[in-house]
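Internal ticket - ligand job 372, zinc ion:
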Amino acid sequence: MSRCIYCLKDDTQTLFTKREHVIPASLGSFVPLNPTIIATDGLVCSNCNEKIFGPLETNFIEDSLEGVYAQRLNLQGRNSVIMRDKNFKIERLAELGDKFFDQMFFFLEMKDGKVVPVMKDQIKLKRFQGGSRVFLPEALREIKKDSSVFKKISADMQKLDRKDMAVFAETIEKKDKIVALLHEFGVPYKEKESKERKFEKGEKFMLEKDYTCTINHDIGRVLAKIAFNYFAYCALQDKQTEILYSSHFDSIRNFAYADKGVLRQIIPSISEEPILYEEKIRNQRLHAHLINFLPENGSIVVRMTFFGRPAIYKVVLGTLPPELNHDHFGCGHAFDPFSHQIVQLSQQLPLPKTEDQIKASFGLFKRYIVPK
Ligand SMILES: [Zn+2]
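stdout (structure tokens):
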């Protein structure tokens, strides 16, 4: 029988037809195994997946530190990005010499093991409800005219504030081509102001001077869901999914599913210090998502960090059920969105290669204990 670990409804009350990603797809995909809780696993219902977590994840991606970072990397190759500028706000201080250029949205790319800012031609439109949407002309050109995607984008553009539109391009010629492209989408562009700035090769600039971001309820709920999904995926590999319905996990499911409860289950901290052994050797954080769970003072605690960013989130998953109280209780993985690899954190060489081998690295009792 299927039963949702979030809303606790079974297959007589709700449908199980969707695939739930352990790590949201917007934060990267992994090969040969992309950990997902599938419909036949019967653990996450379609309603929770689509109606509850769908909008929460969109909010996370458009209005959190990690979400905007993921959009800068454009991991899913989207033709536009959206920033709500409500919760995650960047303070720009005309570092490019002119406020005009500070309106530009910087993308990021991985280059020689480093994540570096990259300028891309773009069309920026303000949203009436706050924030902005940035379109990539390069991607828009690939869209077939009269296709449903083309019509959708054209309709979306009409809903944006076209009076305050900005076009950034590498050259004047490229700008003219973008203006022509906008016309194809039914958006006339009237230039009010035009500026040029020469960027020297190798010129360094700070991506953001200052930003504010809070872990509000919606963002907290996404973090709670990622933590519980990871734990559930580990329980699934050990065929111990019945544990997920126990009252030990009621507070995390109620918070993620129904926003019941308080945020004290999510504890953020900031650290630039290396966490893993590999990171200590290299004296830098891996550009990966790290996630692990361990027992701590009678509770199960999940720790997560994304893209090697300084924010570390501690999520209290619940109290430790006595049957899980075991020396090896715990598991941890690094999900690398650049190489698309997954590595178990306590993994001893040789590293697993096949889908089955990687799957087998997930479990409830995978904590490696250093032999005395
Ligand atoms: Zn559900």
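Auto-summary: The chain has ten helices and 16 strands. The first helix runs from residue 46 to 63.
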